[in-house]
Structure formats: C-alpha cells, structure tokens
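Write out this protein's structure.
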Amino acid sequence: MADDEQWIRDLVARWAVAVHTGDMAGVLADHADDVVMFDVPPPEQGVRGLAAYEETWPGFFEWQASGAVFEIESLDVTAGGDVAFAVALLRCGTPAEFERTPDRRLRLTLGLRREDGRWVVAHEHHSFTDDGVPEEASVEQVRAVHERWSAQTVAKDLDGMMTGIAPDVVSYEHAGPMSYEGIDAVREVCRRGLESSPGRVDFDVPDLRVRAEGDLAVAWGIDRVVAGGTEVRSRATRVFERRNGDWQMIHQHLSFPLDEG
C-alpha cells in the first residue's frame, strides 16, 4: 500500500506541474478514457470522457499565462487494492487575487482505479468555497453607509463623513472643477459645505435605490439637503466597491437638471 500511495503522489505531482506549465500531454496522462470531471465552471453535469476533459484546459492555460500559480499545498492519499482517492489543497490564482484573499485555495478530490497494472484518474473534482455575499445583504450594507452619512452630517462629524469613501474616489460635484479626485479633495468640499451652514444640516436620499453584484454596487436617487431652513434637492449616482469586506464609494456624480427657462 505504501508503494501505491507514493505512486499516486508522484502521479498527482506530475499532473500539477503539467497544469502549471500548460503541458496538455502531461495533463491527460494517467487519466482514464471515461474520466468524469466536476469543474469550477459549468456545465453543472460535469464533463465526461477524455476528449471532453481535454477541451476544458486551453482557456485555463491562457489564464495561467497571465502570471497565475497552480501548486499543491497539501496532499493526502488513501490506496486500497484496486481503488484509491486523493484530496488536496492547491494555491491557484493570480498575485492580485492572493493579495485580496491570501487564504483562498482550490479544493481537489481525485478518484483513481488500477487499470492494466497502473493507477489512472477516473474522477476529478475541483471547487472553491463560495464566499459571495447575497445581493440583498450587499444592498442593505450600502444603504447602511448612506444612513451613517445622514447621522454624521447632522452631527457635523467631518471625519465620520469620510468613512465609506475610498482614498481614490472620483467625484463629479455640482460646481467647481470637472472632477474632484481623491478623498482629500472630497473632504474639502464637505468641509466648505458644513462651514457655510452654521445651523443644523440634514442629508438623506428618500428614494434611494441600490443594485449590487459581487464586489460592485451602484446607488442612485434624489439627494435632499436641508440647511438654514432651505431645502435643496439634486440628482445623485454613487458607485461602491467592496474592499477588505467594507463598501467604499469609488465614484459619485451629482447634478441639477438644466434650467431651460
């Protein structure tokens, strides 16, 4: 059994190197003609047969050429008389992906059988954990950012108003230059607005609408600002990106309708 386990370890190691180097012949070697693979991408029913298995790899090789890694981190093998299985965790991703999620790993399960005196892979299953946040939860989180901004505006908490705004934000304001770039520029706009209104300032978006998918969200509605007893309404669109688990505004576009009178 120990010899069989080492044989399978060597087989998996060769396969991983072949995947990483884009060696199609090496990837196909040691796979059964009737191999069944459940992959990360569709189809949901998996792919069946060596020819279908081969067709899944060119796109992956192209992606790997962008600088991605594919390397075994851990491997456990259990071998019986004519059937064996292996489970592994692999580092599979680009440097940028590992910077965002350093613990992300590809999960691999292999089912093997002995065929003509050698071990071959009869089943292969790849998966990542699903770390996506449901759209409903993301929408509520973006709404919560707006609610905090409302409370912080009333409190005239300039530092608090900057939470939820990305350092590299780009804002199209009602007046001034074509764009304000960076959080310091947006902070200065907010500071001037607060200081020009010595009394209470209220801000909200009564008809706020939010759509979210993955790590991006867009919110839009009619801003309502009340200062010194005067109410001003304007159009607002805001784009958010989830960074390190928190939603940050990366773009804002404010405008008044053109008065054609």
